[in-house]
């Protein structure tokens, strides 16, 4: 009886001792948000604007980025600017970071959020697609991190990596996407270990998201998934809180993300069958 009781007391102490988020934490901070023309990235830009951050956003579609920047200025951003280009090109990924150096004089938070287009369905065997998706969803994240590290070391800043439950547990119908998200976990969790060993005070927050109501995700999966999508504005705010509080991992939403992970190592087959039961399999096209 004593051991579980002590466990509960320790858990309560741990959670109550945790710092709480205040919007002032991000006031005046210099932040890059990738994939910010739509979806969760766009919502993160608006939250940051309300908190008074300096924002540099990027994606491919210039017309959308222009509108997001205008809105960020209306909402009170300390400054807002964009650079358009594709993350298939590592030189572009590095160029975005250099722009933060030139125009913001440094960087406090690097939010890696963009995601390349993939398909929802049985794996089609296209190796070239996996290579391309790895470049966009993984290698460009690495390239930006490498370029940003000198600035982040100086500011003792943060790297926020937006990933997915599909990067922690095997999900059907998103094989190429899942592969890129698992790669992010491997790279950034290992890098975090080295930062500890080398006393590098740059936090890495890996964000594990469930199903979120962005246009892309609803279009791809709303018809097939039996779970409701969570609101993207709330999700965006939770990501920013997790980054500002320097969490190692952020789970949104908790019930649909972290709890299955408890099953992963002790009852993997049960978890896999639970995952499969969340799909309307009759609505998936033939492989
Ligand atoms: P969206 O499709 O709404 O946004 C993706 C962003 O990435 C857009 O701004 C898009 O802009 C940009 N982008 C796409 N291709 C490229 C490219 N080649 N180069 C540069 N930018 C590109 O996605 P979400 O908001 O739904 O997802 C955001 C993050 O959250 C992703 O990392 C995703 O994996 C993760 N996530 C989302 C979930 C969900 O259910 N929505 C669930 C789990 C994780 P443009 O087309 O103009 O380039």
Describe what is shown at a glance.
The chain is an alpha/beta fold. The chain is 52% helix and 14% strand.
Structure report:
This protein has 287 residues and is α/β, with parallel strands linked by helices. The protein has ten helices and seven strands. 52% of the residues lie in helices and 14% in strands. Strands 3-2-1-4-5-6-7 form a seven-stranded parallel beta sheet, with helices on both faces. The protein has one domain: Rossmann fold (3-Layer(aba) Sandwich). Bound molecules: NADPH dihydro-nicotinamide-adenine-dinucleotide phosphate. The site of NADPH dihydro-nicotinamide-adenine-dinucleotide phosphate has 27 residues, from helix 2, strand 5 and helix 7.
**SS field, number of helical segments:** 10
Q: By helix and strand content, what is the structural category? A: alpha/beta
Shape: globular
CATH topology annotation: Rossmann fold
Number of β-strand runs:
7
Can you name the CATH architecture?
3-Layer(aba) Sandwich
State the major sheet: 7 strands, parallel
What percent strand? Answer: 5-15%
Number of domains: 1
Enumerate the spans where pLDDT stays under 50 for 5 or more consecutive residues.
Answer: none
Order of helices and strands: HEHEHEHEHEHEHHEHH
Distance between the termini: 53 Å
Bound molecules: NADPH dihydro-nicotinamide-adenine-dinucleotide phosphate
Any idea what the CATH superfamily is called?
NAD(P)-binding Rossmann-like Domain
Trace the largest sheet across and list its strands. Answer: 3-2-1-4-5-6-7
The radius of gyration computed from the alpha-carbon positions, rounded to a whole number of angstroms, is 19 Å
Summed over residues and divided by their number, the pLDDT gives a mean of: 94
What is the level 1 CATH name?
Alpha Beta
Helix amount: 40-55%
